[in-house]
């Protein structure tokens, strides 16, 4: 490809929006209408596999009319450049957003997952159904209205090709085990990726970082209720037969969540520290009152009760600081290190 591109077809290139294994995406302006579009190009290779992938992506996207999926405007060839012109979506990449803000509150995380599930449900409902295969935060955009928009259909595969996919495509940490193996790919494969995204949102730990796996979320010290933890575990179960199988089942499970905002730290506060504070205050007040009535100060017992109160306050502050530090370290690690390991066009044996 050219090092500097001023025009692709009739589109004036303004800047590069991103790049990947298969090509680059530019922000371009229609020279006749003055409207901005995203222009995706494919790298030329001797076997032409990236060009074919771009055509495949266009084939999938041209028949989609979901408002949270960018529409295709044009497809063309300019010299050695094959390109596809799509709606340009302004907003923040979900990967960048989570790197700065994760872990999110359970309510906000669930709200985002609901929106992503709606899009995936739409894809699965097509005839034939479309399996996205490479669902991950970097393929999602939070637009200016706080809606989630889905990008990059290069890995998408239609249902009747699910068991005969020529290439393996996916990202370690987000792709279900069967996707990386290139066999038995189905709708639950996208459910796994949704669960991995939800795991990132709730814990602040990116599955795309080594060791590229999702731990049992119930073992993490996070402010998440048990029913939401179980939902994440059921979405990311490595076994297809034990995993949530469809978006409809997932939507029902999300609707039935009762304690997604209930914090384990709050259990500790309400069941241990707050009752102890109340008892300590009552105990201290009693001895202050007794000292007043008897016109003598019971220094020993008063000091003991005040010392207990002070000790409880210090213990709680220390535990809260440790809790906050764990999340700060997680967020800092995500900001400093991001190495995405993606499998692209790896022939299946």
Can you walk through the features of this model?
- This protein has about 350 residues and is of the alpha+beta class.
- It has 3 domains: about 5-85, Phosphorylase Kinase, domain 1, CATH 3.30.200; about 90-260 and about 340-345, Transferase(Phosphotransferase) domain 1 (Transferase(Phosphotransferase), domain 1, Orthogonal Bundle), CATH 1.10.510.10; about 265-335.
- About 45% of the residues lie in helices and about 20% in strands.
- It contains 9 helices and 13 strands.
- The strands form 4 sheets. A 6-stranded antiparallel β-sheet has the order 1-2-3-4-6-5. Strands 7-9-10 form a 3-stranded antiparallel β-sheet. Strands 8-11 form a two-stranded antiparallel sheet.
- α3 packs antiparallel against α5 (about 185-205), α5 crosses α6 (about 225-235) and α8 (about 265-295) packs antiparallel against α9.
- The chain starts with 6 loop residues before the first strand and ends with a strand.
- Residues about 160-165, about 260-265, about 320-340 and about 345-349 have low confidence and may be disordered.
């Amino acid at each position: 490809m050219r090092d500097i591109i001023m025009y692709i077809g009739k589109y004036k290139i303004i800047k590069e929006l991103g790049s990947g294994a298969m090509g680059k995406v530019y922000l371009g302006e229609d020279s006749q209408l003055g409207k901005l579009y995203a222009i995706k190009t494919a790298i030329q290779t001797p076997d032409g596999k990236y060009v074919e992938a771009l055509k495949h992506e266009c084939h999938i996207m041209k028949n989609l009319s979901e408002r949270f999926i960018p529409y295709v405007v044009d497809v063309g060839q300019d010299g050695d450049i094959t390109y596809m012109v799509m709606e340009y979506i302004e907003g923040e990449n979900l990967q960048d957003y989570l790197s700065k803000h994760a872990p999110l509150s359970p309510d906000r995380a669930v709200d985002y997952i609901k929106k992503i599930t709606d899009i995936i449900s739409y894809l699965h409902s097509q005839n034939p159904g479309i399996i996205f295969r490479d669902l991950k935060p970097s393929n999602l955009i939070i637009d200016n209205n706080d809606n989630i928009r889905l990008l990059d259909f290069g890995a998408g595969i239609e249902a009747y090709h699910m068991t005969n996919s020529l290439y393996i495509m996916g990202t370690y940490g987000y792709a279900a085990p069967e996707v990386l193996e290139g066999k038995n790919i189905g709708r639950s494969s996208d459910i796994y990726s949704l669960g991995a995204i939800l795991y990132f949102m709730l814990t602040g730990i990116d599955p795309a970082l080594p060791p590229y796996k999702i731990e049992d979320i119930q073992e993490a010290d996070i402010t998440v209720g048990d029913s939401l933890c179980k939902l994440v575990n059921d979405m990311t179960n490595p076994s297809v037969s034990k995993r949530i199988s469809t978006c409809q089942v997932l939507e029902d499970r999300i609707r039935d969540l009762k304690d997604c905002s209930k914090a384990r730290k709050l259990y500790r506060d309400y069941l241990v520290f707050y009752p102890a504070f109340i008892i300590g205050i009552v105990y201290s007040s009693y001895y202050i009152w007794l000292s007043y009535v008897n016109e003598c100060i019971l220094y020993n017992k008063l000091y003991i009760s005040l010392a207990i109160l002070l000790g409880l306050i210090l213990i709680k502050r220390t535990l809260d600081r440790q809790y906050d530090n764990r999340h700060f370290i997680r967020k800092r690690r995500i900001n400093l290190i991001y190495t995405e390991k993606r499998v692209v066009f790896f022939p299946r044996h």
